[in-house]
Amino acid sequence: MVAEQNVQIAALGARLEAAAGTEESFAIQREIEQQKQATGRRLLELQLEMARTDGDADGVAGIEAAIAAWDAPQPAPQRVDRPTPTAPQR
């Protein structure tokens, strides 16, 4: 699975290099990111399957928590207004 991902990422990397500086490069970067995230998620699923097979209740609970955190929506970054620093120059 990881070897397959590496082949796909290498192909996308070649496309990215050819498209450097164009609008398409952002789409390719996003595709690379999605590939890596999908592989990471699949690795967690495989670890969960192995923990269940081994009867590792603590491992199952930990991996299930990791998968739940993975699937949880990420909050959008919020702009924070900060006052302008007023420290005197040194």
Describe this structure in words.
This protein has three helices and no strands. The protein has helices at 2-18, 23-54, 57-71. The model has no long low-confidence stretch (mean pLDDT 87). The chain has one domain (2-71). The relative contact order is 0.09. The protein is flat and about 65 Å long.
Key features of this structure:
90 residues, mainly alpha
Count of DSSP helices?
3
Proportion of strand residues: under 5%
Q: How many strand elements?
A: 0
Average pLDDT over all residues = 87
Low-confidence stretches: none
Order of helices and strands: HHH
**Over the alpha carbons, how many angstroms does the gyration radius reach?**
21 Å
* Termini gap: 57 Å
Shape: flat
Q: How many discrete domains? A: 1
Task: Please give the largest β-sheet.
Answer: none
Helix content: over 70%
SS-based class: mainly alpha
Write the layout of secondary structure elements.
Layout: H1 2-18, H2 23-54, H3 57-71
What's this, in brief?
By secondary structure, this protein is an all-alpha fold. It is 71% helix and 0% strand. It contains 3 helices and no strands.
